[in-house]
Amino acid sequence: MLTITTKAQAAHTTLTVQISTLRAVVDEAENGVFASFCTKIGVKDIREYEERQLKVAEEESQARLRYDQQIARLTHQ
């Protein structure tokens, strides 16, 4: 007889496999949709592009924060 924990672990494993399978299907569809765009800008896939854009946005945000902090320091001197 399976315990509740064992049943939960089995259900979790099953769901994890299903999620991975669905993620692969979505990734493949995205690759097809964005293939020409990715080739044009020189990235492997749309996820690489998104990762780059996120990194740029985070760096910009950090730079803006440092700038605002510097302005605040100079204003309150």
Explain how this protein is built.
This protein is mainly α and 77 residues long. It has one domain (4-75). It is 88% helix and 0% strand. It starts with a helix and ends with a helix.
The helix content, as a percent range, equals: over 70%
User: Proportion of β residues?
Assistant: under 5%
For the termini, the CA-CA separation is: 72 Å
Instruction: Name the average pLDDT.
Output: 95
- The SSE order reads HH
**What gross morphology would you assign?**
flat
Give the low-pLDDT segments: none
Largest sheet: none
Quick description:
This protein is an all-alpha fold and about 80 residues long. The chain is built from 2 helices and no strands.
Which features does this protein show?
77 residues, mainly alpha, 0% strand
Topology:
Layout: H1 4-41, H2 46-75
